[in-house]
Amino acid sequence: MGLTAEILQTELDAVAAMDPRLNGELARIGYPEPRVRPRGYKTMLRTIVGQQVSVAAASSMWGKLEAELGEAFTTSCLLERDFDTLRACGLSRQKQGYARSLCELVEAGAVDFDALPKDDEEAIAELTQIKGIGRWSAEIYLMFAEGRTDIWPAGDLAVQEGVKRLLNLDERPKEKECRTLGDTWAPHRSSVALFTWHFYANPAL
Predict the structure, then answer these.
(1) For 49-61, what is each residue's pLDDT tens digit?
(2) What is the pLDDT confidence band of residue 23, given thresholds at 50, 70 and 90?
(3) How far is CA 62 from CA 43, 50, 103, 143, 154, in A?
(4) 70: how many CB neighbours lie within 10 A of its CB?
(5) Of 61, 67, 73, 139, which residue is the least packed, with the fewest Cβ within 10 Å?
């Protein structure tokens, strides 16, 4: 489902009613754009493909992968391909290791994208079993593919910088402090996180 425009407006309006600082900036720059991605292993695979490469390079690799496997490919389709075939699609040895980890865990039922734990921390723990998927990638998946409304990616530098500016702090808070500061906005932290990115991209004049 992701963070739809309706969810963002409802959640941010609720926060703005209690937080005059956010309310003022929301009035100034408006709501962030919705972020919606399909639920399922393919969205996580696209995250792996896109790690540490440009958007254009990631798009090219994904296109080659779909051309090789078919647009409706399953996890077994990828696992059946050898190293050289996937390398020709642009996947490095490392990316192939991560992609195979994802597909193997899905095949084994250790990661079930149709039934992730309802508890956010348990869901993050399940997703981070996948090689190459850290907490941030798991949090972003839960926000944009599942539309979970109280995820707080405190390790994200743009979130930290947005919090610094929003709260008029002297320094950008590190992850631990940022996580504590975010408690103020529970249970609407996903929308506030997206707003901090929006705010970071639209600094005050």
Answers:
(1) 999 899 999 999 9
(2) very high
(3) 11, 9, 16, 22, 29
(4) 10
(5) 67
Tokens in use for 99? 């992609």
Alpha helices of the chain — where are they, by DSSP H?
5-16, 20-29, 41-50, 55-69, 75-80, 83-88, 93-108, 120-127, 135-144, 157-166, 175-182, 189-201
Instruction: Look up residue 2 and give its two tokens.
Output: 């992701």
**Same domain assignment for residues 86 and 180:** no
What value does the CA radius of gyration of the chain take, rounded to a whole number of Å? 19
Residue pair 120/151 in contact (Cβ under 8 Å)? The answer is yes
Pair (121, 83) in one structural domain:
yes
Q: CATH number, domain at 74?
A: 1.10.340.30
Q: Pick from 89, 136, 129: which is nearest to 113 by CA?
A: 129
- Domain coverage including residue 100: 41-144
**Tell me: the pLDDT tens digits for 90-118?**
999 999 999 999 999 999 999 999 999 99
Name the burial class of residue 168, with classes exposed (0-12), middle (13-18) and buried (19+) by CB atoms within 10 angstroms of its CB: exposed
Domain count, the chain: 2
The answer to whether residues 103 and 124 belong to one domain is yes
